Amino acid sequence: MRVLAFNGSPKAEKSNTSLILDPFLEGMREAGAEVELFYTKKLKVSPCQGERSCSTRTPGECIQKDDDMAMLYPKLRQAEVWVFATPVYWGGMAGPLKNLMDRMVPLLQPFAQPSEVWANRGQKQNSVVLVSNCGWWDMNIFDMLVAHMKAFSLGVGRRFAGALLRPHGPALGPMKEMGAPVGDVFEAARRAGHELVRDGKMSKETLAIVSRELLPRETYIGGKL
Known about the structure:
There is one protein chain. 37% of the residues are buried. Helices cover 39% and strands 15% of the residues. It starts with a strand and ends with a helix. The longest helix has 17 residues, at 183-199. It has a single domain (2-221), classed as Flavodoxin domain (Rossmann fold, 3-Layer(aba) Sandwich), CATH 3.40.50.360. It is an alpha/beta fold and 225 residues long. The chain is globular, with a radius of gyration of 18 Å. α1 (16-30) packs across α7 (183-199). The chain contains nine helices and five strands.
């Protein structure tokens, strides 16, 4: 299984997003997947120009040739699993990741409706996974982002395989450094990677541990960590 992952956080390797993404990808590697990770901060990706040549005059080919998408298109076509990792900004994803996803239009079947693309994939659909972190306490802050990723997956004819969501994420790193009992969260992220490769899906129980409450709400909001 080939996995292509993108970390959209501006903090790249040092981000709170990486705290969940890294063990998830490691679990996939341990289960036998070939994993490649890119940081959008380190990529040169120009905005989509929206002129639709990739769907009309030159189907599947973008007119922009002078950025990193030329390198990424073959990898995207070959990967069975796409992993998109991002912090939550205003209910959505980080801008550079959205910019990269906008440039994926050449991967679509020209003029096909989402339902047609889905049907043409048959039973062996490739998949999309979301990994996200946010500073808010409540899980509902992820709702718009998850809905967006589900719509994106449908549009590109891939199965949305699920999401690893970490609310009040900024507490996780400091709690780990303090020796607080948060190891189960990282282990669950790693296990989710194993499950996806082995079973083609991630269990609700595993994902619930990734998202579990880390500390009392009042402690987090009051900054008493």
